[in-house]
Specification:
This is F-box domain-containing protein. It comes from Sistotremastrum suecicum HHB10207 ss-3. The protein is α/β, with parallel strands linked by helices. The protein has an eleven-stranded mixed beta sheet with strand order 2-1-3-4-5-6-7-8-9-10-11, sandwiched between helices. Helix 1 packs parallel to helix 2.
């Protein structure tokens, strides 16, 4: 069957439901994927899954009636993880209204939506690894996301023109930030200044300066307040694997602190 992708949106849904909503022989959690292009008006199946936790939405196009249709079929208030190609007011009003989001990944186009303060309040991970952030946007993220533990982004070129200011002048307010990978695209002078300020993020354990195939990592050795930075090169950098290691480490550290 031919589907005109110009008038459809493509979604992938990871659905988790409690045992009480399923048949006795069903597992407590299950995975459902919808990889075909569908219009928002064809998402009535979502009504049967009130506890969706994870959504990956590849939006090809967004028509004027899509927001209303999708909102009618589901409120997504139980979302904890959301991945999307773009984020703007319209998408946020449908997918993220009332959600206590913990993990957000935006691949290509990031606009801070009007309801950003409530969206960002519970974020632990914000993955904007392909998106250059200006000073204003980074300040808004820092102000609205006090629980951030892992932040990924690219430095916007405007940082190069700022006198006497680096990202750590903004990021120092993130008191829970534990891992920060950056693709700086900046002068060696700015890079050296950043390295000199890395200690200003008091909970930061890992700072990665990444290029396409290699990186330099600063890793905190010892307890905070009683340790030092260890710097080492990574000649064959697997960026995704580095991120997974940080998420695993942060999760274990959170469990250890809570226990």
């Amino acid at each position: 069957m031919y589907v005109d992708q110009r008038t459809h949106s493509c979604f992938t849904f990871w659905i988790k439901s409690s045992r009480s909503e399923l048949s006795p022989r069903s597992p407590a959690c299950f995975l459902s994927q919808c990889m075909l292009p569908v219009s928002a008006s064809d998402t009535r199946f979502l009504q049967r899954h009130p506890d969706i936790k994870h959504v990956t939405a590849y939006i090809i196009s967004w028509g004027p009636d899509d927001s209303q249709a999708l909102s009618t079929h589901h409120d997504f208030s139980h979302l904890t993880e959301f991945q999307t190609v773009q984020l703007n007011d319209e998408l946020a009003s449908v997918f993220l209204k009332g959600a206590k989001l913990r993990d957000l990944k935006v691949i290509a186009d990031f606009e801070i939506p009007r309801q950003w303060a409530s969206i960002a309040a519970n974020l632990k991970t914000l993955d904007l690894r392909f998106i250059p952030l200006t000073v204003r946007v980074l300040e808004e993220i820092t102000r609205s996301s006090p629980r951030l533990e892992l932040l990924l982004f690219v430095l916007h070129q405007e940082w190069e023109s700022l006198q006497g200011m680096t990202v750590f002048d903004v990021l120092r307010d993130l008191k829970n930030l534990q891992a920060l990978p950056l693709q700086p695209h900046c002068s060696s002078d700015m890079l050296l200044k950043m390295l000199g300020q890395v200690h200003e993020c008091e909970m930061l354990d890992n700072f990665l300066i990444a290029s396409e195939t290699s990186g330099i990592e600063l890793e905190w050795v010892g307890e905070h307040g009683d340790g030092d930075w260890d710097a080492h090169g990574i000649p064959d950098l697997d960026f995704d694997a580095w991120i997974v290691r940080q998420i695993t480490r942060i999760t274990l550290d959170d469990i250890r602190r809570a226990g």
